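Exercise 7. Predict the joint structure of the components listed below.
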Amino acid sequence: MRLHSLTVEQFRQFREPFGLAELTPGINLITGPNESGKSTLVQAIRSAFFERYSSSKMEHLQPWGDSSAAPSVTLVFETDGQQWQLDKRYLKKKRCDLLVDGSQYSNEEAEDKLAQLLGFQYAGRGASKAEHWGIPGLLWVEQGAGQTIEEPVSHAGDHLQSALNSLLGEVASSGGDDVIRTVEKQREELLTKAGKPRAEYEAVIQRSADLRADLEETEQRIRNYQAAVDRLAELQEAHRAAERDRPWEEQKKQARAAQQQLASIEAWQRELDQSRRLLEQQEALLKGRQQQQADDAKQAEKLAEREKAKQEARDELEKLQAGNQQLTETIDEARATYDIARRTLDRARAFEHYSTLKARHAELGESLRAQEEALAKANKLKSELASARAIVRANPIEKAQLDAMLATKRQLSDAHIRLEAIATRLHYDLQEGATLSLDGSPLQGQGEALLTEAGTIELPAIGTLRIVPGGTDINELQREKENLEAELSRQLAELELESVEAAQRGHAEREKAEGDIRRIEDQLSAHAPKGVDALGEAVSSAREERDRLAAQLQELPQPEAVDIAPAEAQDALDVAQKALGEAEQLQTEHRVALSTAQERHRTAEQEWAALRDEIQSEGFQQRQAKLAAEIDETRQAVEKLTAENAEKQAQIDAAQPELLQQDLERFSRSAEILEREHRERELDIKGLQSTLQSQGAEGLEEKRDALAAELAHAERRCEELQRRAEALDLLLELLQERRQELTRRLQAPLQKHLDRYLGILFPDARLDINEQLIPQHFSRNGEYGEFDDLSHGAREQLGLISRLAYADLLQEAGRPTLIILDDTLVHSDRKRLEPMKRVLFDAAQRHQILLFTCHPESWQDLGVEPRELTAMKQEALRQ
Amino acid sequence: MPRILHTADWQIGRQYSRFAAEDAAVLSEARFAAIERIAELAVEHNCDAVLVAGDVFDAQTVSDRVIHRTFNAMQGFTGPWILLPGNHDAALVESVWTRARRLEAVPGNVVLALESGVIELAEQGMAVLAAPLVQRHTYDDLTAAFDALDTPESLLRIGLAHGSVQGVLAEDIDSANPVAEDRVQSARLDYLALGDWHGSKQINPRCWYSGTPEPERFRNNDAGNVLLVEIEARGAEPRVTTLPTARYQWLQWQRQLAVASDLDEFLRELEQVPADSVLDIALAGSINLADEERLERALAKAAGRLRSLQCDTSDLSIAPTDEDIAALGADGYLGEVVEDLRQRQSDDDKTARDALLILAGLLRDRETAGDVRQ
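Solution:
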């Protein structure tokens, strides 16, 4: 097959018509960068063949955004000497036209012809998928899909087989594969892959088992039913016999006889019981009397005992009385010691008290004298302090006041000097006698008057002269001077002083007095730190205390001197007191013991006397004689009764009442059981009858027969299915065997082609193909592995080699071959690419190859002129 | 002249597991129809009584409905019916009979002979000596009691029993429920009506098995009749007439196919079988594929026509001819497989035979489909 040209229009990125014409046999290298349209052209070829023109799912073929476009593809090719032209248009005005050497085919007919030619299928609905692509799916390698080979080969399987069958002539079967598939399918309806029954077969086996179980159960129920019927017959027979014979009557009779015998034995027993009670009474009486006799005999022994007790009590009493004297002496002695110790302590205490008072009195007198001296001094200092304070009070001039006054005076004297300096000087030199008056003051002789203010000179007889000092300063100075004078006057007046000198004097006096005060106060605090009054009070209270002590001493008698300390005396007293206490305790205890012994002695004597009186009495003797007679009598009665009872017991024992009792029980129970059995049998019969009636209505045997029929059917079906399954198994096995044999015969030519290419790529390697004609085992240099385990690059290379081998085989079988490689071998390194180019070049001797690539530099040594898509597109636009 | 209709072994409630459910139901139903026919015949022949010699019911625990239907089917004849319990329906303390009475299914003219003794039918001029089975199996001759039973001189002495006449039926030696061969003589019977043997059979001129009125097995023993017994007077030899009652014929064939004409003969024979037949065929020999197809078609056709058809072809081997293989289009390795299977089949490999037929069927379907396409 040879493709001459390819033209597309309104097809994805080719909005305008674009053609790839003058395609050559052998390799056609179409290059162009990404997005230049290489894959679009591949897609155009694929869709022209694979997709139904009528498919509505072809929007993706339209140029982007142009939903009104009608994508179209035109292919012109030659195969088997015939010229084919295919025009296909999708979506708008969809059509398919095929012209084969002048014969016209259209639409589905044209498409079916194409499918038959190339060996592929159309999708039932929707877009075509890999499983439909058949042989082209194997020979047209999509971008990045070169490394997978198993899937495309299996999709091409049928077409490959039928194409290759022609190579082998009659050994291949035209419909063998269909038959195998049908047999497989039919087998699968009955068996799982592993050969286990499934679906109906499995169900019918299960059903048979269920039915068998049901049947077994029903048969068991029938057996039970029949057993119940037999049982009913037995029971009815037994019931009739029992009604007739009434076997329980005999048992009842026997029971009654035993009952009567037992009744007489019981009467004997009652007599015996009564007699035994009587015997018991007599025995008790005898025992009581014997006891009484024994008690009397014991009285004499008791009297001796009491005498001995009396003697013992007396001895004890005497011993206690003897001990009393010694105890009294001891206690007197202890009391005397105690009294001496008591008095010694009192004396020691009185002496100590007196000595203490006396010492205190002396001490107090000493301190009182010192205090009285200090008080006298303090009083004197106090009066000095009062006079110094009077001086201070008389001169109330503070240092600050004095200083202010002196300052005022200095300023005043300054002002006076300045005033005199600028005052109008009036020199006069009057004639003797002549008198003038200035401002009323007469002026005589010579002199000078300073006028600091306007002055009037009376010139007798002449009139007056008024002199007014010039300038403003003088007035101001004058006023300042007046102010100072006023200030000084005020300061003096405040202190009621005549002059500044007086002030100075007063102040000096005051300072001296203040110094005196400080000194006196220091001295005063030395003598009377808490004040003179406090001192005075202390003196008077000390004086009182001394007087009180003196009075006390006066009153106290003069004690004699003692050479023992009160503490020592106290210790001696404590010892004496303790000894006295102990002695007194002993005495008390002795008294109690004594009175107890006296009482005991008295009682013992009384008891002894009482008993002695009783034993020696007359009544006691008589009673003893009577008692002995009574004992004899009772003993005889007891003996008689004992003999009688033994006789009665022997009689009862001989009658064997236990056995009689057992007989009674046995016969009664037997009768009861027999009667109960009879009644129960009657009930059983009724129960069985009703059970059987209800079970009979179930139609058990009819049910059993129905189940048996159903089981027989199921088992027959099971057997049929088993036979069919076995037959299908055998048939499938034989068919597959033959089919594999055939495949092995097909493998040889394919292997031959494969080896040829492999020899170019890996001279020492081997690639084996399996029965499905898929490359499987790869070995090289003794290494061995599965195809799928090879590297991505190696799988791509071997995948291409395999495809070329298939193409060779197909060509041999007279089938058209066209190889399309879209950017293939991109995972191959330079070293591998070289032999692959030799492979491709070799294949191109027999097949047309369209090689699309975006790596033109990799293929420049392929010996073909590359066709650059971008340039071609521009060329097309120019036209 | 008293006339009796003697029948037995109705086996009401019998089910047939070997047939398809539909056929089995029809065959079960036919047993009720047989009772109706018996009633009709009794009327037609002006009979005085109908004696049923045991095994009226096939089992004790049939459903209530079956019991009612049985007695209802007897309505056609209003004279006395005497029903005797047999081994399938023995008069146990609880039995199909006690149930029938509880269900009040038994009409007044039907006498249940549940106890051994004499049933006097003075009006009909006969005394019936009944020997019912009261246990499922007994090894005593229950008819022995007949010898000692007295009946009025004016009445015929008719025995009614269910069991095997000793020394007559080879396979029944030592069997349960024995009947002495000379019972007729020892008990001075005018006629002894027997049941248990399913074919009509005369033991002696006064002793007969009536057989079942509707066959239910393939044993070819003259089943499907009732007996009309006419006795002139006490001591006279009875006149016994066989009246056919069967609706369905039960046929069992065994045929050997060797040459082509054997099949032709077999198919002709098959076509002539009446529609009311239950046919069981076993084929052996060998047959080619084309004839096998012819046979299958003929069997399918016959199955549609007959009441029931069962054919066992497992002993019939398939011998495909070259023409067969060519006709199937078994080219290439398919042909090899056909040959292989043929070979295996000759080693008595039944699986190979089935496989060959499946393969032939598939190939035939393909051819047919191909023809349709063309």
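Discussion. The longest strand of chain A covers residues 2-9.
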